[in-house]
Structures are given as C-alpha cells and as structure tokens.
Predict the structure.
Amino acid sequence: MSLRRFTALMASAVCAIQLTVSSPASGQELGELIDQSINLMQQQNWAAALKISEDIVKDHGGNAEDTYGPRFGGVYFRKGVCELKLKKWDAAISSFEICYKNFANKPGNDGNTNPFHKTCLLQWAEAAMGKKDWQQALDLFDKFIKERDREKDRYSQGPFFTSLAICHYNLGDFVKGNENFEIVIQNQEKFRVSDAMLINVFRYLAEAALREEGKEQALLDFIKKNRGAVNIDAFDMYPFAPAFIKMANDALKSERPRAAVELYMLVPGTELALADAKDKMQDLGLLPRMRISGGETLIKKQLESGIEQLEKSVTSDQNVEMIKLSAAAFLHEQHSNLPGAFAAFRLLEEFYPNAQNREDNLFNLARLAFAVDASINSLQYAQRFLDTFPQSPKVPVVRRLMLSSLFVQGKYEECIEIANEIIGGLPKPSPQHDICLHVLGGSYYYTGQYDLAAPHLEKHVTDYQNSDSKVAAAYFHGSNYYRLGDYQKAGELLDAFIGKYPNGSENAYLPFALLDRANCFFMTDQNEPALAKCDLLIKDFPECNILDQAHLLRGNILMSMDNLVDAEGAYQQGLRIAERNGSPFCAEAIYHLLGLLIKESGEGKPLKRLEEAIAYVDKFWKQFAEDSPGYAREIAVLQMPILEQADRLDEGVERLRKIIVEMANEDPTGGGIEDKLDAYTEGYMKKHTPDQAKAHFLAFDGIPKEAKAVNALLLVKVIGIYGDVAKEAQKKKDESAEQAATNMVKALFERLKQDYDVKELTPSVLVKVGDYLRLKTATPREALRFYNEILERKDKANEFPALLGRADINGNSTIAADIDQALADFQKIYDSTEKKNEKEFALFRMIELLMAKKDYEKVSERCRQFLDKDSGFQKSRQAPVVGLFTAQAFEGRKMTEDAIAMYAKVWATHKGAIKAAAPAMKRYMELLWERNNPAPVPAAPGQYGDRQSAYIAGATWIQQTTVIRDRMNEEDRALWEQVDALAKQYAANPNIKNLEQLEREKKPR
Amino acid sequence: MKASLFGSIILSLALAMTATAQNFKLKAQAAAVIKDEEGKPTPRQIWILAASDKEMGYLESPEDAEFQRVPMSQVLSVYFFESEDFKKAVDLFEARKYKEAKDLFEQIQKTHEPVASIKNNPGAIAQYYKTECLRKELDLSNMAKEASRIKTDTLTYELMQKQISLYPVWSAVGAREWLKAEELIKPFEKQKVPGFMRAQLSYCHGRTLEGLERPQEALLAYQTALVADSGASEVVVRESALRILEILHNDESVKEAVKAYDASKGEIMTAGYGKVLEGAGVASLFELVLGGGTTLPSKYKYFIKYKLDPNKEEGDEPKKVEKKEE
C-alpha cells in the first residue's frame, strides 16, 4: 500500500510535467509518442504506456545521450514508473539506473536537463524494495539525500520516512526502523500521512518482528509506546484485517501469544467497522468527498462501497469476529483455561450459527462443555451437535464424550438412557462400544441395579481386556457379584482383581475391592480372613475415603465373634474417622455402638452403660440425624429401651410418631414402616389403653387416608393390641374380657377385609391377614387370596411366609392337586430360604403331606434328610415326630422289622415327647404282639417272648411317664391313655405276667 | 441543554451588542454545507464562533474581524475538523492515559460550549470521551454523572450510541443495584452485539452475579468478558481476570484440590481440580496478556504452578477417580 502511494505521488508529479523531447530527425513523432505515454499513465494504463516507452527506447534509444541529451532520461524514467507499477522490478531498476547514469545533468546543458536525474533514485529505491533488496533501497535513499538539489529535488517526506522504516525493519534493525517510523508518527499531519499508511508500516514492523526469533518484544514495546498511533479508526483498519489476522494466527501457533493478542486487538470487528463507516458517512453529509486532515480524505463512493461490503461480511459465514473468537478459544485452551475456550465457542454458537465451520465450533463447544464445570448443561450442546450434524464423523466422539462425562459426573440414570439408546448401533469391537459398555455396566452398578449390570460388566471384561477402563471394569465385575449376594463368585473375582492390580498407586479401586472382599468373607462366616482384609485395607490405605467403613466392618465381624471389647474399639475408630472426614458413616457407627451396648447388657435387660448410650443417642440427633435420614429411622427404633430406661420414653415415642407420619407421606405403600410402628405401638402402649390406641391409630394424625397400606398396618396393630388383651384375659380366665377382645379382633379383621383391596396392602399386612384367617378362623381357605397376592408381586418381600401359609392350607386339603401344590410350595421354600426355621418347617410339612399321600418311599427319603447329622434338625422339636414318620414309612413299605426297631428308638429316645413316643409305643406293642415270637430256649434272665415284651415295654413306659400325665394336653393324654389301655389289655391275657408278678419272680425266694 | 443555552446567550449578546469576532473565544474550524442566497447547497470551510438552535455565527477566514451569521435552517451539515487538542486527547485516550485524557477532554468540552447545539460538535464528543475515561478508570459513580450529561440528540455517531446504551448497566453496577443491573442486562443476553459491548456486558453481568451471591455463575460471565473482543476492552478484561482469580481463590473446592494435589505430589485430582486449572490458566494468561502489562497480584501467583504443560502427553495427567458411592 505504501509503495503504491509513494509511486502514485511521484508518478502524478512526473505526469504533470509536460515534457517534450525534440529530435532533429523526427522530433514531432517522438513528442507525440511521449504525449501518448503520459496520457496513458494518467489513465493508469501502465501496460500500454510501457509499450510506448519501450518502442521509444527501441526506435530512439540508440545513442540517445548524444542525440537527445539528458532530457531523454525522462523516457527511461516513465518506462521505469510503468514497470514499477507492473511490478517488473528488475526492468524498473534497469530503467531508473539508465535514467540516473546515462542521462545525468551536466553543467552547461541549459534547457536540456533531466528533471528526474536525482528523483529517479527514489523510484529506483522503490523498485529495489519491490525486489526486497532492502539494503540497496536504503543506499539509494541515502544517495538521493546526499546528491539532491534542495531547491529542485523536492520529495514527499511521509513516503520517504515510511520507506526507510520499512527497509530497516526488513533488515532487522528495529532501532532505526522505529526511529524513522516515529518521525512519521510525530509528523503525521505535516507529512500528510494517512492512518492507513501508518498501519502499513506497522505491518512491516510486525511481520519482521514475528519473522525473527526473539524479536517479539520489539513489537510489543513499539505498541506500548505508540498504541494511539496504531489504534486507528475501525473502517480504516478493516482492509488490513486479513494481513493482521494472518500474522496473529501465526504468532499464536508459534507460541507468541502476547504478540498474537496485541495484533488481534488491533483488528476491529466487522460490525464495529460498519458502524464507523456509517459515522463517517454522517460526517461527509452531502459532500462527495472531504479532506478531514492532512492525510485523510473521506470519499463517499469508497464509504458506500465499504458499507456494502461490510454489511455482506456481517452476515457472511466467515468474518473477523468468528476468526477472533476461534483464536481466543485456542489461546485459552492452550493455557488450560477451558472455561475461557468454552465461553468463546459458546459465543460462536449463539451468535454465529451460520459460520462456515460451525460443525467444528459446535463440536468444540460440546467437548469443552463436558470438560468445564458440571453446572453447565453440557448435554444440550452435545445433543444439538447430534441433531444438527447426524452424519458428522465426530458423532461417535460426541456420544462417547456424553457418556464419559455423565459417568464421571455421576449422572448414571442419564448414562443408562443414552447408552441403551446407542449401544446397539455401535460397531463391535470399537473404542466407543468399549466406553458405552463400561458406562452402561458401571451405571447400573452405581444405581444398585446389579442384575442389569452383570451382563454388561461380564461382556466388557471379556471383550475389552486392554480397555482404558479395564481396571474399573474388573472391579465393578467382582463387586457386582458381591452386591448380588454371590459371595463365592465375588470372592474369586475380587481375589483375582487384587492379585492382578496389587499396586494401590496405580489401582484406585484397590481399597474398595479389599472392603468388598472382606464383606464377602464376613457374609460367608469366614471371620478371620474378613478381618485380615480389613486390617490390610486399614494398614495400606490410611488416607482412603472408605477407612471408616473398613473400621465399621471390622466392628461387625468382631461383634459376630462375640468380641465386644474390640468391636467397640473398631466402631469408635470408625466414628472418629467418619467425623473427621465429614462422612455419612457417622450415623452407622453410632447405630452399631448402640446395638453393641444393648447386646452387651442382654436383650430386654437394663443397659449397663446407660449414660454412654444416651450420649450416643443425643450426639446422633444433634449432629448426624439430618444428613442420615435412613439411620435416623433405625435409631429411633433402637433407642426406645434406652430412652425408656432414662425416663425419656415420651421423647422416643414422639420422634417415632413424626417418623411414621413422614414415612407414610413419603411412601404411602408403607415400605419399611412396620418396625417403626411396632416400636411406636410398644412405647405408646406403656401409657395408653387399648381403646385409646384404637382411637389414635385408626385416625392417625398426619397420615393421609390415601396411604391405605399404612392405615391397614395401623389397623393390624390395633388387632394385635386386642389380640394381646384376649390372651391376657385368657390367662386370667376372664372369659367375658377375652370374648370382648376376641370379638373386637374379629370385627377389626372384617373391617380390614372390607375396607382394603388386597392390591393396596403391604406384603406384611397381607401375611398378617392371611395368617389370621388361616389360623384363627373356620374358613382358612379365605387366606389364599392374600398369600397369592404376595406371590404374584415382583417384590419378593414376605414370599416365604406367604408360601408357607398357602402350602399349609393346601396341605390340609383332601384334594390331590392341592396337596401337590402344597408340596411344590414347601419344596420351593426348602430350596430357597436361608432361614433354618423356614427350611425345617418346609421339610417337616413335606413329610407330613407325603405321609398323607402314603408315598412311603419319599417319606423315608425326606425323614433321612431331616434326621441327618448335618441337617441341623436332629435336636429339633419335630425330630421325634419325624422318627415316628420314619417308622410308619417302614411299615408302609412292609419293612416290619425295621419299623419295630424305629418305633423302639422313638419311644426310647424321646420318652417325654408324648405326641411321638405314645403312638410309637402303641404301634411297637401291636407289632410285637402280632409277630408273637416265643422267648428263646433256654431264656436268659430278662429275655421274653414278643407278647410279654410288648406288655413290659408299654407298662414300663406308662409307669415312667405317669409323673407328667397331669401336664399333658388333651391330645397327648389321649395318646398316652391308648398305650395305658393296651398295656392293661395285654396284662389281662392269662399268658402275660404283669409287672408286679415279674417283679416278684425276680425276688429271691 | 445547559451548554446550548450558554452558547445561545453568548451568541445573542454578541450579535446584538458587538460586531467583532474578538468577543468570541472559540474559533472551531469546520466544513459546512450552507445554502447560498439562491438556496443552493454550498460547501464552505468556516470557523464557527457560536451557535444556537436558530442561528450560527462564523468566520470565513480565521483572520476576519467581522463574523457572518446564518440561520440554522440554512445550515445543511457541519463537520468539525479535529483540533490539535482534540487529537492529543484522543491519542492519550488510545494510549490508555485516561486521567490526562479526561482533563483535556473536559477542557475541550468547556471550550466548545458555544457550539453545543450543533450535532456531533467536539464538546459533545469530548463529553462522551470524558465519560469513557471514567468508565475505564472504573470510577462508576462519576461515570454515571457524566453519562447523564451526554446529549444523545446531538451525539449521533452509531458507535458512540452503542456505547452510551451500556451506561445504564454500568451505572447500576456502580451503584451496586444488582437486581436492576440484571434486568438491564437481560435483553442483551440473546442479542447479537459487537464484541466490545459483549465484553462489557459480560463483565457487568459477572459483577452483578457476584453481588447476588452467585459467584459460580459469575465465573462464566467473566470468562465471556475475557474472550468477547480478543481482550481489546483492556480494563474489562483485566478486571474480569482478577475477579475470576478472586472467586477461585476463595472457593473451598479449590483449596481442597490444591491441598490434595500437593499432598499427593500431583497424583490426586479432586472435584475442584478443574477450577484449579482454570485459575492456573487465567493467572498465566494474566501475566501474558490479560493483565495489560500490570503485575499479577502475589496472592494469585500460586495458581500458575498448576498450569498443565500443553506438550505433556495425555496419559501423564493425574489420575481421576471415578465417583464411588456406597
């Protein structure tokens, strides 16, 4: 730009001089040609003008010095100017050199002078600059200054000094460059230098500074000193925008951010330039052009065209604003200020959605949104990207980012939704499928959906053994089995995990794995290894955030080993750590400590360390209850005996009341509320009558009517209260009170049946109603619909009591199909339950039912199972009866000798168990009587025939059990009396000697 | 209005009682288009002495002793050439020497009171610049006072109008009227505005959000101020960077993250680590460019040591522990 202006000024000066070169031979012709060339130059038709000058030189240049004298130098000068304009640098240099060297003015050449003899040095220098021969240019400028005639050879100082500055900058001499540039700046008005010219020089300065290593500071120093000079009007600066943007971009890429930012700052936004142009139009008013300062002229046409271009640029798909924002984003991200980069891309997306590279912008926005603060709704941009550019090759990355980010942020529900949506369409194997699978399994794991997590975790560890998330995946895999209750499998996987990644500094999941492994051991009654894992965790990870949990688990293990002293220490340590870390496990620690203090004193007995217990209770409610609502509900129950002993029962009752109301409103189905109601009822009844309880419970303040399950539970509680009243009255033999209470129970049950649909009742209420109908009414089969309701639900709570109830009813049926159903239910209980009493009962009832079916083979098999030394039921209350069934099954199988032996075993082993011993004895006597084997001959003392033996066994048993006869219930007494009668019947036989006779015979005569 | 009235009094008195130009202190060189006697618009270079709504007094040559007067209805346009003082004041302003610039603009504004009624007169522009100087110095209460003195009907430049439209926001921030500021900022949120406006609005928004005790939201507003116009709004950028650092410096999660990171020798990255990186980025950029040559306050210097090395391999980053819930 500067070169063009410099040349233009000089060229116009040249053209303004009317030159006529006269030739003795063809002066007229040459003069016309020169005029033509000048005209064409004035029209800026440089090529045509050059052609004429070339023709002149060709036709007249030979010996021109002698023929035309110095003034012919003008032809070469004009030729050079045209060549300069056409950027034919070498040709121009040659022309100016000839003009200078061959057509020098000589003394005495009056009237025939070369007016360009010295000034052509300036053009020559300009051509050298065009050729980037900066030193030659400087030398020529210097030569001009030294040789010029001060009067004749005038020059424009503005272009002169700017050219000097440019040459120096390009030679890397910033001191001399700045020296000359500042002369221009300080004399801008006087030199009539426009702002645009200044910026052009500054561009050379910037380019030179950035070109050379370590010269960035020269640029920064100059800007700091001359900021006002380089901050020109936006409209004037705008044409330089591409050059400055390029320099700034290069500076940014070459890690010279300070220079880059300074250069970006100089480039005005399109809208700013447009507003400035409009302001300039205002200044111009009605005028077509106006010189507003030494170097500045406002030209209406230029402004109009500028406005038109800028208006297009404002709405174009690539303008300065977009470039600058992208650069800002790059700079901030490069310096780890991701929110800054995010902010820049957000502006790009919000205000420049038509950007040519919107796909990149939106992708970067989505990418950075995930990386910056989680409060920013990062997903919306990712989703927008997916919606807008569904075919983009970046789609898999965005989806992966969405998942990874959500996962790290703990937004597992969203992870599950997205992962499930996309996993089917992902190529396998692929990095995105790897992450998707990991996130899906992990999210199910973290949300407690362990059964759903299992297949994904399993697949991940199998298919992606070298995944980036292989450590996490392996941990989840093992831990998930622990949470599913498969302690064996979990233990194996966790052991493998711990063995494979044993270094805690590389495996962040190691402490979690140790804790889970300890839990697995504990859950399978392997206390010693469980303790060992806890100890290892505590020793190796003293700073980990689950240390409190490790101590609490340690406490639980020690408690189960009845080592209450060490357990207490562990719980206290857990509490201390949890308190220090502000962990939610403070509540659990106190819960265990309270449990320990209660256990230490013996269930139901006064606490030995009441004050300590009270201190824990108070600490809990003061410090931790608010943040641990779950434990608050449990401790509200646990603390009742403690508060009662401390004479603060009312406080406990009131707290439970609030909790019950809170839970009923929170979950109208009454989940988890029952034990709170039990504790509340117990506490309440300490100071209230049954009728008060009935009035209070059946219209419980704060519990909405819609909470049907809860209200049903309350009704059941009242039934229980009157049931207790009836029992108490029965004990006191107060028949009328018993009857009244029983009637109340009946009425309340009726109300329960009528007022509540089975669908509205909780499993526990359903069981209670079912059990009542089954056990306490004449219509037990009515209970079936309550049990069936439980068994039809997905929630398996109370499944076994329901199965037991149903099987019991069906077992009492005479219909074969009912009995088969009962057998199936009992078998299911036996196979599934972990409760010993439920297992025992199920097995016993199966034996009973098989007996009823006379399936003696199976009875024998089941009885063996029951009485096996490893069954744990040998000492069971039902063991004598099972023995009896065994004997009866032998009989059924025609194994009389075995039956006799088994009957003998039953009555001999369980003499006092009349229910089994009496029938066993009776049948034993009968079988011996029927067998009727004689006594051996000769018979040893005490050796008798079968019939005598049958009598002796029965009569002796009667003698031995007579002492408990009065304590027998009617059923047992009837059985006993049958044996007594049989013994007497046999004694009446003349062949039988009664016990007295036998006794007498024993005495020595 | 006051300046215009003053100019009007001067003019009427001068025209009535004197006939020489010596009574006028001002000779403002201007290019004007004035209708000639035949009503033809004629460009003239004149030296304006004073003007009212009704008429204008001027010289055709600065040396003239007698002045001309023309009804304003005949004056089609006036462009005031920049005086040396004005140029100097603008240069000072561009060189960020706001105090000196403000004094000079004040002087210019006073000198040009006699022509205050003319559109875009140097006094009106000086008044605008004076307000800008105060804004740049963050003297917002005085800025508000000066802003109220700008006559928008005589200052019609689009660029200045845009800036003037932001003064109510700045004034509300200066007066700590946060709710009002939020209301004023809201309409701009979805509006496309030039970068310099976005930078200022974002800074003001940041201040407002801080005032409303929402510092975490303020962070993003300040970050937007940093990037909106490539840092050209140097005061806004510097102050925004400092506010970001202050918020992060006081953030508990940042303190925890720094503690954990230091204790683990860079192994442990807690939830606040992202903010530590943000602080590191802003602090290092402050030293490079955002500070505009000012020194990073020593209390924020510790952030810099947490800056990620961009040349470091991705795998070298501290380990991030996925969320573990029990």
